[in-house]
Structures are given as structure tokens and as C-alpha cells.
């Protein structure tokens, strides 16, 4: 069974540019979450999607946005990049089991460097 | 707001030297406590889910336990391949669609 696939794995951008990251969840998983990981802050929740609807959003500025498509694939976008946006962006998928939503399965991440 | 604190930040063990990692949490209505392992340059790999105090889960040399305020990850007779960062996370009733992570414990096992 294929795992969570994220593209691209590595990218370098300059301040002010924008970036789009892509995530394909495990087959059958309809919930997709995004996390930002930095050495100082650890893993921080960005947003979660289910059936093309955003169900929860973390405390990030509006420059961070996402969407989910009908096939459960998801993208996140960061506009007007800042140096502090350099991080590992992780996508995770899960089976939605209602109140006790199951464990998250993570991809290998997209490493973004902003110069 | 949910909070997760892991200790120690780093732990160095000799091969075969058993020890425990700690995860203290503050949540409003626990809906699950999760342990993950993360290798350098990789995404976190799921290990265990615990839902209620007194619950225990085991996998090879790892055993996770849960109380009302903390969880322990016990590592018995570790091997160098157990070296990784171990992350603890919680899901609460107030935020069912996200995990709140601790900053992790970096475990190094020397041969």
C-alpha cells in the first residue's frame, strides 16, 4: 500500500515569492492535515481538510492557505514568502472515524528554504 | 489550550541500557495520545495510540503507558537502530481534527 506522497521534496525560493506544495494521501484516506516543522517550534498544525472542506485551522497568517480536491489530494500555498517560512512542511492523512479520529500517517515532507 | 512537554530533550544510552522517555500533557478531554518516531530527513512514523489512563501498548523493545497527566515510552535493551527523535502528541475534545506535538526527545544509542 503506497504511503503519503509529497512533492516537491526540496525547493529553494526567495523572499516575496510564493510556493505551492502537493500531497497525495494514502488510498482510502479522506482526511489530510498539514504541519510545519522547525527546530525551534517543533511541529505546528496548519490546517486539516476532509471532503474538500477545511475543518480546522492553526494560528498561521493568511499567507498560508490550502485546499483539497475531490480525489482527496491536497495542496498548500504560501504567498509572499519570508525567511521565517523556511521549514519542513509535512502532510499527513488519516481515516476519519468520527469522534476518535485515527492516527496520522505522514509523508516525508517538503523542505522549503527561503533566501 | 492543549500543551505537551517532553523530557529529556536529549538522551544518550549505551546499547542494552534501558530507560524511559516522558510526555506530560494538559488537555481538555483527551481523545488520544500518540507516539511517533522520526528519523533525520524523514516524516514522523506512527508507533502507538493510547486512549485512556492505565492503557499500555508494546512493540518490539518499546512499551508506551498512559496516566491522567503523562505518558511514558519505555525502551528495553535498546539497539543503535533505535536512535531517532521520539515525538508525543495529543488530540483533545476541543480540537478533534489536529494533533498538538511536544518538541521531542532525541535518543542516541551507542554500540
Salient structural properties:
heterodimer, A: 115 residues, mainly beta, 7-stranded mixed beta sheet, 0% helix, B: 111 residues, 6-stranded mixed beta sheet, globular
Could you characterize the architecture of this molecule?
The complex is a heterodimer of chains A (115) and B (111). Chain A contains no helices and eleven strands. In chain A, strands 2, 4, 5, 6, 9, 10 and 11 form a seven-stranded mixed β-sheet that branches. In chain A, strand 4 and strand 5 form a beta hairpin. The N and C termini of chain A lie far apart (37 Å). In chain B, the strands form two sheets. In chain B, strands 2, 4, 5, 9, 10 and 11 form a six-stranded mixed β-sheet that branches. Chain B is globular and about 45 Å long. Chain B starts with a strand and ends with a strand. At the A-B interface, strand 4, strand 5 and strand 10 of A face strand 4, strand 5, strand 9 and strand 10 of B.
Query: What structural class do you assign from the helix and strand content of chain B?
Result: mainly beta
Span of the ends, CA to CA of chain B: 41 Å
pLDDT under 50 segments of chain A (min length 5)? none
Q: Summarize the main sheet of chain A.
A: 7 strands, mixed
Structure, briefly:
By secondary structure, chain A is an all-beta fold. Chain A has strands at residues 5-7, 10-13, 19-24, 31-38, 42-50, 53-57, 64-68, 74-78, 87-94, 105-106, 110-114. In chain B, strands 2, 4, 5, 9, 10 and 11 form a six-stranded mixed sheet that branches. In chain B, strands 1-3-8-7-6 form a five-stranded antiparallel sheet, with no helix packed on it.
Amino acid at each position: 500500500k503506497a504511503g503519503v506522497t509529497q512533492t516537491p521534496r526540496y525547493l529553494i525560493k526567495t523572499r516575496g515569492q510564493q510556493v505551492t506544495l502537493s500531497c497525495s494521501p494514502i488510498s482510502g484516506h479522506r482526511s489530510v492535515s498539514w504541519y510545519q516543522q522547525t527546530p525551534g517550534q517543533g511541529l505546528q498544525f496548519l490546517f486539516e481538510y476532509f471532503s474538500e472542506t477545511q475543518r480546522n485551522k492553526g494560528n498561521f497568517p493568511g499567507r498560508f492557505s490550502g485546499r483539497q480536491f475531490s480525489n482527496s489530494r491536497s495542496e498548500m500555498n504560501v504567498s509572499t514568502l519570508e525567511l521565517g517560512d523556511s521549514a519542513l512542511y509535512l502532510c499527513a492523512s488519516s481515516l476519519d472515524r468520527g469522534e476518535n479520529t485515527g492516527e496520522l500517517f505522514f509523508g516525508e515532507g517538503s523542505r522549503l528554504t527561503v533566501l | 489550550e492543549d500543551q505537551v512537554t517532553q523530557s529529556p530533550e536529549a538522551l544518550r544510552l549505551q546499547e542494552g541500557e534501558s530507560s524511559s522517555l516522558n510526555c506530560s500533557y494538559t488537555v481538555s478531554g483527551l481523545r488520544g495520545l500518540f507516539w511517533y518516531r522520526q528519523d533525520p530527513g524523514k516524516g514522523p512514523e506512527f508507533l502507538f495510540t493510547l486512549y485512556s489512563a492505565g492503557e499500555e501498548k508494546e512493540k518490539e523493545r518499546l512499551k508506551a503507558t498512559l496516566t491522567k497527566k503523562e505518558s511514558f515510552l519505555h525502551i528495553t535493551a535498546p539497539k543503535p537502530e533505535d536512535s531517532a527523535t521520539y515525538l508525543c502528541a495529543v488530540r483533545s475534545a476541543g480540537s478533534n481534527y489536529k494533533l498538538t506535538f511536544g518538541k521531542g526527545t532525541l535518543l542516541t544509542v551507542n554500540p
